[in-house]
Design a protein that fits this description.
Helix content of chain A: 55-70%
CATH class of the largest domain in chain A: Mainly Alpha
CATH topology of the largest domain in chain A: A middle domain of Talin 1
CATH architecture of the largest domain in chain A: Up-down Bundle
Oligomer: heterotetramer
Shape of chain B: globular
Number of helices of chain B: 18
Radius of gyration of chain A: 24 Å
CATH superfamily of the largest domain in chain A: M75 peptidase, HXXE motif
Largest sheet of chain A: none
Radius of gyration of chain B: 24 Å
Number of domains of chain B: 2
Number of helices of chain A: 15
Order of helices and strands of chain B: HEHHHHHHEHHHHHHHHHEEHHEE
Strand order of the largest sheet of chain B: 4-3-5-6
Chain lengths: 369, 449, 449, 369
C-alpha cells in the first residue's frame, strides 16, 4: 500500500511539473476550429501584407522627402504631403497588430501620438540634441509631428516651404521620416524572418497564445485608438469639454475622417477575415464565433450583433464632416453620436465575444482556483 | 450519548499523520511563497497598483510599500520554521497572521485556497502538531510523543470535509448540472490540448466533467474515511487534480488538496513515511516513538477545543449566508466568497464610469486603466462591491482635483455563463450615495435568464 | 472505522419507544382520517371536483368516485390495526398504500405533513414495531421482545431529523431572515387574537418569530438527542407548536410532530408510559419485558437496512434538486414540494385563460369556476405545473365541444411575499404546445425583486 | 421527569383543543386597525341604509303596481316603470353585500338573473302553476323579468297596457313584485334584528370573519356582476361573439349604463368608506390598505393603484352609449375597452390587495402546513 501510493504520487508530481512544457506532441484534431489555419491567414494575408504596404509607403515618403529637400518647392511639398498621407493611411491597417516586435519596441507610441507637442518639436529642432527613442519624445515624432511640419509650421505654403528648407528643420523632418521607416522595417523583418512561424505555431488557448494576444490587441485598438483617440477625446467624452486640438491630422485639417474610416475598415475586415488586398476570405473571428454559437446551441448571434452595431456606427460616421475639427467645433453632437454607437459595440466585443471565445481581457498571469 | 463527549475528547491517536501534514503543508507554503516572489507577483499585485480593494471591515489593512517583501520573507521563514517544527507555536502564529494579512491587502487576488490556507493555519495554532517529528520535540524530550488527542487530527479532517462538501453542494445548480456551464465554455477553448484536445468539443464530456466533479466533491471525503475505499478515492483524487491542473491555471491548489487528503490515511502509512524520511535526513526517528501521549502543556491546549467548536460552527453556517440575499447568487455575488464556490462560473464584465457635475450637468468618462491594473479592472467589472469601492475612490480623486458636486454613475454590463450581456448596476444610481455594506445591494439589476 | 458498520447493525435498544410511537402514530392517523371524513372533505376535495390535478408521473392515480369512502375506511381501519399491532406488517403496508394513494389523487391538497406520514409509514413497514406492546406479540409469544435492533429506532429519528434540518435550512433565505416575510404579513392580520393580538403589529415580533423559527428548526433535533437538554427542547417544541396551532390552520401537524419528538426520549420514559397504559387497558405488560431481542423472522428483516439506506440517500438528495433549476425558487416552485419547505411564503395569484381559434383569431375567456373548485383555483393560479395541466384539460374540453385549431394562453399575475403583483406565465406562449416535465419551465417569467 | 412531561402534554393538548372556541376573552388592543369599528360603519352607514332604501323602493313599486292594475293606463304604466327603475337602481347598491340572510336565501339569484327566459315566463303565466323558489325559475323572475313584462311583452305601449291587464299576466307580475319585496324585507329584518351585532362581533381574521367575507363578496360582485355580467358577457369576452341580448335592462333599452354606473359607484364608495347617503366617511378598506402600507414600509401604493385604475375605467365607461345594446351592436370596441380597464383592476384587487390584507380568495376550509 505504502509503496503503491508513493509511486503514484511520484508519477503524478512529475506529470504535473512537466505540464508547463507540454512534452506530449500534438496529434490531429478533428471537427474543431483550426486555430493555426486562422493564424496563418492572419499572418500571411493580413498582417504581413499590411506591414509590407506600409513599409513601402514609408520608403516612398522617404523618396519624396529627399526630392523635396533637394528641391524645395510647393509642388514637391505637395508630393511629400501626398506620400505622407498614403503612409498615414497605410498605418491605420497596421496599427491594430501591435504584437511581436511591434509590441516590444512600442511601434504605436513612436508613430501616432497626437496631439503632437509643438514646443517640444521646436526645442528639439533648435537644440539639435534629442533622442527620439526616449518616451519623452513620443509626442514630438511620427505622423502627427510631420503633420505639423508639413501643414502647420507656417501659415502660408511659401512659408512652410522656406521654413522646412532650413537646415535644422530639415534635419529633424528627415530624422522623423527615417525613424518611422527604420522601426517599421525592423518589425517587418522580424515578422518575415522568424516571428511568422512562431506566431502560427503558438496556436494554443492560454493567455499568451497568439489568438488571445491578437484578439486583445484588436480590442485594445478598437477601444483606445479608434473609439477614444479618434472620436471620443476630441468630442470631450473623457474630459467633459470638446477639444478639436485632439483631432488626428489636426494641422492638415481634412484627413481626419479618411484616417478614421480606414482604421474602422481595417477593424471590420480583420473581424470578418478579409485579406489585406480585399481579394480573399479566410478563417476569421466571425467564423470562430459562429461555430461556437453552433456548438453551444446558443441563441445569441454573437457576430451578427457586432456587425450590425458596426453598421449603425458606420452610418453615423458617414454623416461626419471630412474634417473632424470642423465637426467638433460646429456640431459636436454628431461626433458624440458616432462615439455612442462605437461604444455600444464595446459591450458586445469585450463581454459577449470574449466570453464566447473564452479569452481573458488583458491576460493576467496569476493563479485561479 | 450522555457520556460521549468526555470519552471522545480523551481519545488518542498516533501523532504521525498530523506531524506529516504539518511538514508537507509547511513546505508547500514555503514553495508557494517563493513561487509568488519569483514570478514577480509581489511587485505586480501589491506594490505597483496605486489603489487596492479592501475586504469589508478590513480597510485598515494596507500594503506596506516595499516592506511587503519583508512581510513575504517573514511569512516564508515562519512556514519553513513550522514545517520543521522549530518554535512551532510562535512560527504558526506568525505564519497565520502574516499570510492572512497578505491576503487581506487586496481582495482582487481572493482565492478560495488562500482562504483555506488561512483556516488550516488557524486550526494548526491550537493543536499539538509539533509533538512528533519536530525540532521542538527533538530538543525538548518532554515534548516528544507518539500519541496525540484524537480531536486535533479530526479538526483538520473536518475542515477538509467542509471544503469538499460545500464545494459539491455549490455545484448543484442548474447552470452546472443541467447546462454543463461554465465547463463547456472553458473546455471548448481547450481544443488545442495534446491527445485529449479533440474531445473538448464533445458535449458528453462537458456533462461528464460537470456531474463527475459534483459527485466527486460531495462524496470523496466519505470514501477517504472508509479504509476499504481509501486507495480508490486517492487515485480518483489524483486523477481529478491532474485534470484540473492540466486544464486550468490553478497554481498550488492541487498540491495542497493532495497533501490534505493524506490526513485521512492510516497512522501506519504515515509512520513508514516519516521513518523513511528520517533515514534520508539522518534523524533518529525512534525518539518520537516513545509510547507517550501528548498532554496539556500550556493553557492553549486546555482551551483549544472550546475555540475550535465555535470556529467550526461559524465554518458550517458562514457559507449558507448567501441564502439571505435575494437574486441569483452568481449574478449578485452577495455571500459568494468564503463559501467554497470553486470554478463555478464564467463572468465577463465591462464598467464605464461617468463623472457628472450635478449642477452644470456636464460629464466625462473615466479611463479605468489610469487607476487600476488590468487584473483589478477585470475583477472590478463583475463584482458590485468592487464597483462601489472604486467609485468612491474616483469620487475622492476627482474631488481632490478640484471638481465639485460630483456624482458618479456606471454603465456596466456583464455576461454570466454564456448568457447575453446585460446591464449589471443600475446606471441611474449615483454610486457616491451608496456604501458597501452587508445589506442587499438593491442597485444590482436583476439577471434575466 | 473499518468495523463500525457491523457493530452498529448489531446494536440493540429497548423496544418501548418504537412501540409507543407505533401506537400514538396509528391513533393520530385514525383521528386524522375520521376528522377528514367528518368535516366533509372527502366529498369536497375528492368527489365533487370534476377535474383533479395529478403529480408528474402519477396520472394513473384517479379518484374512484364513491369508492373513495371505502378507500378512507380501509385506510382508517389499517391505521387502527397497526396502532394496536394486529397483523402489523399487513396493516402497515395497507395503510402506506392506501394513504399514499389518497394523497396522489389530487396534488391540490399537497401538504408536507401528509408526505411525512407516507414516509414514516414506509419506514414502519421495514422495522419490527410490533415486537413489543402489540396484539401480534401478545398472541404469538415468540414475537414478544424487550429489545429491538437499534437501527430500526434510529431510522425514524433520522427521518425526523431530516425534516427539521431541511425545514430550518429552507428558512435561511432573504425574505424570511432579512425581511421577516411572509410572517409579518400573516401576523399583522392576527391583531384580533386575544391577549397577544396587540403585539402582532410589532416588527420585532415578526423578526423574533422568523429567527426563532429558523433556529428552532435547525437545532431542535440536536437538543432532543442530548439527554441534558431534552426536557427544555421538548418544552420549546410544545411552545412552538402551540403558537403555530394558535396562529395558523395546520390541522394535525403539531400532534404528529409532538408524537415524533417522543422518539428521542429515553427507553425508561416509554416503559413507564406503556406500563401505565397497560394498567389502564388491563393488559399484562410484563409479557413483553422478557429480556429477549428481536431477531430476523422473515426476509423483510434481512433486507430492511439495504432498502432503507438508499431510501435515506434519496431523502437527503431529493430536497436539494431545487438547485438544479434557475430562477427564484419561491416564484417558479420548481423542486419546491417534497422538500420540507413549510410556511415559507405567501403567494397570491390570478390566472385568466384565453381560448383562441388560431385560424380566425377569434377568442374568448374561460370562467375558471366552471371547471375548478375555489381551492383548486387558488392553488392553480400560483403554480406553473397546475396552470399547464389545467390548460391541457381546457384544451381537451373545448376540442370535445367541437372547437378546432385551439390555442390557449393565460394572463396570469402573482404576488410573492408582499411584492407588487407581476406577470407570472409568459402570456404569448400557447400552453397547449408545452408539456409538464421535470425540465426548467422557460415560460415562467422572471421575478423582479 | 415522566410526570412532568405527562402533565405538560395534558395541559397542551387541552389548550390546543380549546383553541377552536377561543375561550380567552378579548382585551383592548392599541395602535392597530380597528376592524370592529370598520364593521360597524359598514353595517350602520352602508349596508343597512342601502337595504332600507331598496326595500322602500320595492314597497313603492308595489304601490304603483297596485295603482296600475287597478287602473291600467299608459300614464300609470309609466309610473310603474319609474318605480321599477328606482328599485332596480337601489338594488345595485345592495347587490355587493350578499352576506348573512341574503347569502342564505341567494338574494341575487332571485333578483337579477338576465337574460330573462321569455318562454319560461310565458309558460309560467299560462300554466299558472309555478314555484318561484325553484332554481329553475331564477331566470323567470326579478327585475329582468319585470323589464320584459313592462317593456317587451308587446311592441306598442297600448299593447303592453292591455296584455299586462290580463288576469294571468297581472297575477304573475304581482307575484314577482311581491316576492322581491318579501325576500328583501326578510334580509333587512334579519340585519336589524340580530345579524348586525353578530356581524360586527365577528371581527376576527379567520376565513369566516366578517371582514374576510365582505371583502370576498365585494370582489365577487366586482368580478362576476360588474365586470362580467354588465360588460364582459354582452361584449362577448367569454363566448367569442358579442351578444346584446345579455345586456342588463335589455327590453327597456336605455337604462343599462345607468345601472352599471350606480353599481360601479357603489363599489368605489364601499372601498373608500363613503356612507350610503354620501354624507360621511368612515373606516374603509382603503384606510386599512394605507395603514398596512405604512406599517410594512411598503413602496406599493395599494389603494392608490386601485383608485387610479378605476378612474381610467370610469372614463372609458363614460364614453359608452346610455343603451349598451346599441353600444354592443354598433361599436363593441368601446365595451371591450371598458372591460379591459375593469379587468386590470382585478389583478390589483385579487392579488395585491388580498395579499396585503392577507385575506384568502374564497376561503377554503382545509388544513395548511
Amino acid at each position: 500500500m505504502y509503496q503503491k501510493i508513493s509511486i503514484i504520487i511520484l508519477l503524478i508530481v512529475t506529470t504535473l511539473s512537466c505540464n508547463d512544457t507540454d512534452p506530449i506532441s500534438a496529434i490531429d484534431r478533428v471537427d474543431s476550429f483550426d486555430r493555426s489555419e486562422m493564424l496563418s491567414f492572419w499572418a500571411d494575408e493580413i498582417i504581413i501584407p499590411a506591414y509590407m504596404a506600409y513599409a513601402n509607403d514609408l520608403s516612398e515618403m522617404d523618396e519624396t522627402a529627399k526630392t523635396f529637400f533637394a528641391d524645395p518647392s510647393a509642388s514637391n511639398l505637395e508630393k511629400l504631403r501626398e506620400s505622407w498621407l498614403e503612409a498615414y493611411i497605410s498605418w491605420q491597417s497596421v496599427s491594430l497588430f501591435e504584437i511581436g516586435k511591434a509590441e516590444e519596441i512600442g511601434l504605436h507610441n513612436y508613430t501616432n501620438i497626437y496631439p503632437t507637442n509643438i514646443e517640444l518639436i521646436h526645442s528639439n529642432i533648435s537644440n539639435n540634441n534629442y533622442n527620439l527613442i526616449l518616451p519623452s519624445n513620443f509626442a514630438a515624432q511620427g505622423f502627427p509631428a510631420l503633420d505639423y511640419l508639413l501643414y502647420g509650421i507656417e501659415d502660408t505654403e511659401e512659408g512652410i516651404v522656406s521654413t522646412l528648407s532650413k537646415e535644422d528643420v530639415r534635419t529633424y523632418a528627415i530624422s522623423l521620416i527615417e525613424r518611422l521607416y527604420s522601426i517599421t522595417t525592423e518589425v517587418l523583418d522580424h515578422w518575415t524572418e522568424s516571428y511568422r512561424s512562431e506566431f502560427v505555431a503558438n496556436d494554443g488557448s492560454s493567455g499568451t497564445a497568439s489568438v488571445d494576444k491578437v484578439v486583445n490587441d484588436f480590442l485594445f485598438f478598437y477601444e483606445k485608438y479608434l473609439r477614444a483617440a479618434k472620436i471620443g477625446i476630441p468630442a470631450g467624452k473623457f474630459s467633459g469639454s470638446k477639444s478639436s486640438r485632439h483631432v488626428e491630422g489636426f494641422y492638415s485639417e481634412k484627413y481626419s475622417k479618411l484616417l478614421f474610416q480606414r482604421a474602422f475598415t481595417s477593424v471590420k475586415d480583420f473581424f470578418n477575415g478579409i485579406s489585406y488586398d480585399g481579394q480573399r476570405r479566410g478563417t476569421s473571428i466571425k467564423q470562430y464565433l459562429d461555430q461556437i454559437q453552433n456548438i453551444s446551441n446558443s441563441d445569441i448571434d454573437y457576430s451578427g450583433n457586432i456587425i450590425s452595431q458596426w453598421n449603425v456606427a458606420q452610418s453615423a460616421a458617414d454623416a461626419l464632416d471630412s474634417n473632424f475639427k470642423t465637426q467638433v467645433e460646429e456640431d459636436n453632437t454628431k461626433m458624440l453620436a458616432v462615439y455612442d454607437e462605437l461604444q455600444k459595440a464595446i459591450v458586445l466585443l469585450k463581454v459577449d465575444m470574449m466570453q464566447a471565445l473564452n479569452i481573458q481581457v488583458d491576460f493576467v498571469d496569476a493563479d485561479g482556483d | 450519548m450522555k457520556h460521549y463527549w468526555p470519552s471522545y475528547i480523551n481519545k488518542t491517536t498516533k501523532a504521525a499523520p498530523l506531524a506529516a501534514f504539518r511538514f508537507l503543508f509547511g513546505l508547500l507554503m514555503l514553495i508557494s511563497l517563493i513561487r509568488f516572489w519569483y514570478y514577480g507577483w509581489i511587485e505586480k499585485l501589491y506594490i505597483l497598483p496605486t489603489f487596492h480593494f479592501h475586504y469589508y471591515g478590513f480597510d485598515w489593512v494596507t500594503v506596506p510599500g516595499p516592506w511587503t517583501y519583508l512581510l513575504f520573507f517573514v511569512c516564508g521563514l515562519s512556514s519553513f520554521s513550522f514545517a520543521i517544527g522549530y518554535k512551532y507555536r510562535l512560527s504558526i502564529i506568525i505564519f497565520f497572521l502574516s499570510f492572512t494579512y497578505i491576503e487581506l491587502m487586496d481582495k482582487t487576488t481572493y482565492l478560495n485556497h488562500y482562504y483555506l490556507v488561512s483556516l488550516l493555519s488557524f486550526i494548526l495554532i491550537w493543536i499539538p502538531a509539533h509533538a512528533h517529528f519536530s525540532v521542538d520535540a527533538y530538543k525538548h524530550k518532554g515534548l516528544a510523543n507518539e500519541y496525540i488527542p484524537r480531536w486535533s487530527l479530526d479538526a483538520l479532517r473536518l475542515m477538509i470535509a467542509i471544503v469538499y462538501i460545500y464545494a459539491g453542494l455549490a455545484k448543484l445548480n442548474s447552470d452546472w448540472m443541467i447546462d454543463a456551464l461554465p465547463l463547456s465554455i472553458w473546455l471548448r477553448a481547450k481544443v488545442d490540448l495534446p491527445i485529449i484536445g479533440s474531445l473538448m468539443d464533445e458535449q458528453w464530456l462537458h456533462y461528464l466533467f460537470s456531474w463527475g466533479g459534483a459527485i466527486y466533491d460531495l462524496f470523496i471525503v466519505f470514501f477517504l474515511i472508509c479504509s476499504r475505499t481509501r486507495i480508490y478515492a486517492f487515485a480518483t483524487m489524483l486523477f481529478f487534480h491532474i485534470m484540473t491542473r492540466l486544464l486550468f491555471p490553478i497554481g498550488m491548489f492541487p498540491y495542497i488538496m493532495i497533501a490534505a487528503s493524506l490526513l485521512f490515511f492510516s497512522a501506519s502509512f504515515h509512520t513508514r513515511f516519516l521513518s523513511g524520511l528520517s533515514k534520508i535526513l539522518l534523524i533518529p526517528y525512534d525518539v518520537f516513538c516513545n509510547g507517550l501521549t501528548y498532554r496539556r502543556h500550556i493553557n492553549f491546549d486546555r482551551y483549544a477545543p472550546y475555540i475550535l467548536i465555535p470556529f467550526f460552527l461559524v465554518q458550517i453556517l458562514f457559507p449558507l449566508r448567501c441564502h439571505l440575499y435575494p437574486g441569483n447568487l452568481f449574478w449578485t455575488e452577495q455571500g459568494y466568497r468564503f463559501s467554497w464556490r470553486v470554478m463555478l462560473m464564467e463572468k465577463t464584465g465591462y464598467a464605464n464610469f461617468k463623472v457628472v457635475d450635478s449642477q452644470s450637468g456636464k460629464h466625462f468618462y473615466v479611463q479605468n486603466e489610469d487607476f487600476l491594473t488590468s487584473f483589478q479592472q477585470k475583477q472590478m467589472s463583475t463584482q458590485a462591491d468592487f464597483i462601489i469601492e472604486y467609485a468612491h475612490y474616483l469620487g475622492e480623486h476627482f474631488k481632490s482635483q478640484g471638481h465639485q458636486n460630483i456624482q458618479i454613475f456606471v454603465e456596466s454590463y456583464a455576461s454570466l455563463n454564456g448568457r447575453k450581456s446585460q446591464p449589471y448596476i443600475d446606471p441611474d444610481v449615483d454610486l457616491l450615495t451608496v456604501k458597501n455594506s452587508l445589506a442587499h445591494k438593491k442597485y444590482i439589476l436583476p439577471l434575466h435568464e
